[in-house]
Structure formats: structure tokens, C-alpha cells
Amino acid sequence: MGRKDVLPFWFGESDQPTPAFISETAIASLRGGETFYSENLGRLYLRQAISTYLTTLHQRSIGIERIAVTASGNSALMLASQLLLKPADRVVTVTPLWPNAVEIPKVVNAHVTCVSLQARNGRWTLPLEKLLQALTPGTRMLVINSPNNPTGWTIQRAEQEAILEHCRRHGIWILADDVYERLIFTEARSAPSFLALTDQQDRLIVINSFSKAWCMTGWRIGWMVVPPPLLPDLASLLEYNISCVSEFSQRAGTIAMQQGEPYVLKLRSELGQTKAMLSAALHDLPRLEIPEADGAMYLFLRVAGEEDSVRLAKHLIDEVGLGLAPGRAFGPEGEGWLRWCYAAEWKKIEAGLERLSRFLSS
């Protein structure tokens, strides 16, 4: 970081700034003097906007009695673990996975078992039977991120139905990370969400964030959907963790919900085009394996003969100034792989392709 000669594709964020209509709303809030404490669960106007957005998106009523505003999706992961887990509880995760989602349950001394996605026939796939076998009676929680960071794998509706039936039978909580649900490269408006299958009494917590689909990574604002009986305890945990989310961020999030749909669709279209062009270009290079996936904003690839992803990532920086994230960061299942975030302008990606080609040919 800080080296001007390195092209960085390691962070999970777009190189586009937040849309002006969102930023201007926050500026107006600050100029209007909205600089005081807000509310633990978030302002009612934002919770209502999120409720309307989710109800429309998933065609299932999701009321404000289930919604809390959080200081980022990351904070929501921690809050969910604090709500549900006690020491020695068993948690199952689908990996490779953003490391925070694996490590946060360990902060409260839970035990984490990982079930790895598989690259089969050129695509990332879920070994469903293996996952169901891992979800033994007594398992407290399943953590599942779809579309997935780092692979882009996206769960199918039939897989969700099988997982939900199994977890209901054994009383297992599902913690669904839907942060990338709008960044899906099919005709669907959204990736499949457990919200469309469940009612408010199910053991389901869904977390989301404004970071990805609205390019608001630095704002640190997200939300949670929980069963109504959990909301009072969640309000207390929010008080103890952050007290409340800043008012100007909530104004920004509200306008993003109410007016941001054209922007989200435009961003998704641009990402889909970039993904297609990058995939095609990478397939022309030697020694690469790039399994296909339907969502997020990453390609997870590997170079034949390279098993140490950290060593490889460092060589890419030192030799050609190309910054990719080493797969080991996403757990041992990611070892040997590299993550390329393609949420960047095409000229920058073209320059990165030239550097990777030069590295491979040398």
C-alpha cells in the first residue's frame, strides 16, 4: 500500500466514489445540524426504507419490527455472534470465505467447522450433501455467504430449500450474509435469499450492507433482519457496541434505498461486462484456472504449479507491480488461489492483464 507502481486489485470495493445524490444528502444532513446521537436500532425513517426495499425485492413482507441498522455488515456479523453464541458452540461455515466471517465466531469462543466449495466442470459448486452431514444435531449456527467472497459462487434456490428444511429439523440458526445479493449476473433482480423462503419466526438472521451495491464502503453502515423476539436484546448490544449509527449516514442510506435502484442496475451491468471481458482475457493466458461463478465482483483463479498463494502474491508485486489478494487469506481451502477484484475501470484492468501476462511468460 502506498506504492505508486502497484496496480491494486486486492480490496473488495469498487474504485468508483459514492454516487453524488447519496453524498449530497449526507452533506445536507450535516449542514442541517444532524450531528447528535440517534437511536440504537436506527432511525425509523431508514428502517422503514429498508423494510420497503426488502419487501419489494423478495416479495415477502419484512417489517420494521425485524430490522436494525448497524455500523457496517462486519459489525452485524459480530452482533449476530454475540446474540446467538456461547463458548464451545459449534458453527459451520461454507468456505473459502471472507476471513472475518470465519474468525468472528471464534472471538466468542465458538468452534468453527468449514465445508469447502468445489471447482467442478469449470464452476464453483456447493457439496450439498457434505454440508448437510456437517450440520449435525447440536450445531448452533450455519454461516453462509452468497454471492460468495472470494469465489463469486451463488447458492441455488433448491439448495436453500434443502438447507432450510435440514436446519429447521435440527433447530440450527442460519446466518446469511447477503451483502452481494444485488451483484448477480443473471436475469434475476437479486441472488436467491433465505428471506424469500422463511417467516419471521424462523431461526434466521440476514445481514446486509450499503457498501457494495451503492459503493459506500467507507460509510460503515449496514443492517440486520432478525426474528422480532431478538430485537430488544439486539438494541442493547448495539448500545454496548456502537450506541448508534451517525445520522448523516442514515440519511445517505435512506436516499440510496429510495432512489438508488437505477444506479444499482447500472453498476451491476458494468460489472457483468467487465467480468466477461476479464474472464475471456484470462482464459487466453497460460497456466490459469478460473472457475465460473454468477455473482459478487471477484474472480478466484490459480496458476498451475503455484501452491503458496502468499509467496505468489508477493512475487507479483515485486516483479510486475500487480496486487492480487492471496487465497490463503480466505482460509486453508483458498490456498493456491488468488482473488482479483474487478470492480475497476477497464483501462486499469487491461494494464493488470498485461502485467500478469508478462509475469506468466517469464
Layout of strands and helices, then pairs:
Elements: E1 7-8, H1 20-31, H2 44-58, E2 67-70, H3 73-84, E3 90-95, H4 99-107, E4 111-116, E5 118-120, E6 123-125, H5 128-134, E7 141-145, H6 157-170, E8 173-177, E9 204-209, E10 222-225, H7 231-241, H8 247-259, H9 261-283, E11 288-289, E12 298-303, H10 309-320, E13 322-323, E14 325-326, E15 337-341, H11 346-361
Parallel strand pairs: 1-13, 3-4, 3-7, 7-8, 8-9
Antiparallel strand pairs: 2-10, 5-6, 9-10, 11-12, 12-15, 14-15
Quick take:
The protein is an alpha/beta fold and 362 residues long.
Radius of gyration: 20 Å
Q: How many distinct helices? A: 11
Cα-to-Cα separation, first versus last residue: 25 Å
Tell me, what is the CATH class of the largest domain?
Alpha Beta
CATH architecture identity of the largest domain? 3-Layer(aba) Sandwich
Label this structure with key terms.
362 residues, alpha/beta, Aspartate Aminotransferase, domain 1, seven-stranded mixed β-sheet, four-stranded antiparallel β-sheet, 17% strand, globular
Describe what this molecule looks like in 3D:
With 362 residues, this protein is of the alpha/beta class. The chain folds into two domains: 7-17 and 262-361, Aspartate Aminotransferase, domain 1; 20-259, Aspartate Aminotransferase, domain 2, CATH 3.40.640. The protein has eleven helices and 15 strands. The strands form four sheets. Strands 2-10-9-8-7-3-4 form a seven-stranded mixed β-sheet, sandwiched between helices. It has a four-stranded antiparallel β-sheet with strand order 11-12-15-14. A two-stranded parallel sheet has the order 1-13. α1 (20-31) packs antiparallel against α8, α2 runs parallel beside α8 (247-259) and α9 runs parallel beside α11 (346-361). The relative contact order is 0.18. The mean pLDDT is 97.
